[in-house]
């Protein structure tokens, strides 16, 4: 998804808003770095689509607040799988 940074910022903003996606998920979807996604939506988007930016920012803030919960669930799942494997053998 290389090309025009301003176009990319709008596409990323719309994707994040539509899918309630994290920066990491958007980066993976479009094959670009998390740094690029973050720069596009936090620096470029407010300048080129000021009406879209607050909506995207709201999603990103919510994701940031929930980050510790997702991390805890991932860790719980990891150890549950390890425990299942231990009892299999």
SSE order and pairing:
Layout: H1 5-19, H2 23-30, H3 34-48, H4 53-88
How does this structure look, described?
By secondary structure, the protein is mainly α. It has one domain (5-88). It is built from four helices and no strands. It has helices at 5-19, 23-30, 34-48, 53-88. 17% of the residues are buried.
* Helix/sheet category: mainly alpha
H/E series: HHHH
Question: How many extended strands?
Answer: 0
Distance between the termini: 45 Å
Global Rg:
17 Å
Low-confidence stretches: none
Give the % helix. Answer: over 70%
- Portion in strands: under 5%
Q: What is the tally of helical segments?
A: 4
Main sheet specs: none
Mean pLDDT: 91
User: How many structural domains does the protein architecture include?
Assistant: 1
In short:
The protein has helices spanning 5-19, 23-30, 34-48, 53-88. It is mainly alpha-helical and 89 residues long.
Question: Which features characterize this protein?
Answer:
single chain; 89 residues; mainly alpha; 4 helices; 0% strand
């Amino acid at each position: 998804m290389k090309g025009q940074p301003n176009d990319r910022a709008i596409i990323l903003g719309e994707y994040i808003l539509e899918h309630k996606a994290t920066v990491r998920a958007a980066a993976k979807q479009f094959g670009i770095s998390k740094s690029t996604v973050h720069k596009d939506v936090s620096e470029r988007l407010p300048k080129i689509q000021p009406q879209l930016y607050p909506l995207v920012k709201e999603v990103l803030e919510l994701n940031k607040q929930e980050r510790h919960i997702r991390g805890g669930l991932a860790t719980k799942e990891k150890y549950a799988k390890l425990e299942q494997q231990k009892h299999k053998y």
